[in-house]
Amino acid sequence: MYSTSQIRELIKDGRVDKFYNDRYWRKFSKSVIAEQHYECQICKCKGKVTRANILHHVKHLKQFPQLAYSRYYYDDNGERHRQLIALCHDCHEAQHPERRWQERADTFVNEERW
Ligand SMILES: [Zn+2]
Ligand SMILES: [Zn+2]
Q1: For position 97, what pLDDT does the model report?
Q2: CA 66 remoteness from chain centre
Q3: Distance CA 48, CA 21 (A)
Q4: Domain spans of the chain, in order of start
Q5: Are the beta carbons of 15 and 51 closer than 8 angstroms?
Q6: CA distance 99 to 114
Q7: What are phi and psi of 64, to 5 degrees?
Q8: Tens digits of per-residue pLDDT, 1-52?
Q9: Ligand 1 centroid to 40 CA: how many Å?
Q10: Residue 110: is its pLDDT beyond 60?
Q11: Is the Cβ–Cβ distance between 28 and 86 less than 8 Å?
C-alpha cells in the first residue's frame, strides 16, 4: 500500500504502473469489484449487463492521489459519491480520453524518431 506522498512521487516519475501492480491495490480493487457484483456500472445505467474487469477512480488518481483507496468522496455540498467504480474495458477507455491522446502522442514521438 502506498501513501499519498509516495503516489505523488510515482506520478511525478511516470511510474503509476507501480501503484496498479502493487499487491495491495490488486487485492483491494478485486474486492471492490466484487462488492459491485462484477458489473460494469456505466453499462448497468444503460440497462446492459457487462462484466467489469477494471476499477476506475472517478476523481482521477493523477489529480487526487489522496483518494487512491477511498470508496467514496464528498463534494462541496457534503454529498457522498462513489469514488471507485467497476467498469468494463470499453467504458473505462471512454473515461480516459487524456490517455488515448497520450498514446497518440507517444506514437508520434516514435514515428519522429524513425
Ligand atoms: Zn461498460
Ligand atoms: Zn480509470
Answers
A1: 83
A2: 13
A3: 29
A4: 4-113
A5: no
A6: 23
A7: -130, 65
A8: 999 999 999 999 999 999 999 999 999 999 999 999 999 999 999 999 999 9
A9: 5
A10: no
A11: no
Q: Which ligand is nearest to the CA of 89?
A: 1
CA 4 – ligand 2 centroid, Å: 17
Instruction: Quote the ligand 2 centre to 95 CA distance (angstroms).
Output: 6
> How many CB atoms are closer than 10 A to CB 33?
21
What is the distance between the alpha carbons of residues 72 and 62, in angstroms, rounded to a whole number?
A: 17
pLDDT (average), residues 80-109: 80
Ligand 1 center from residue 89 Cα (angstroms): 7
Q: Report the amino acid identity of residue 66.
A: Q
Q: How far is the CA of 52 from the centre of ligand 2 (A)?
A: 12
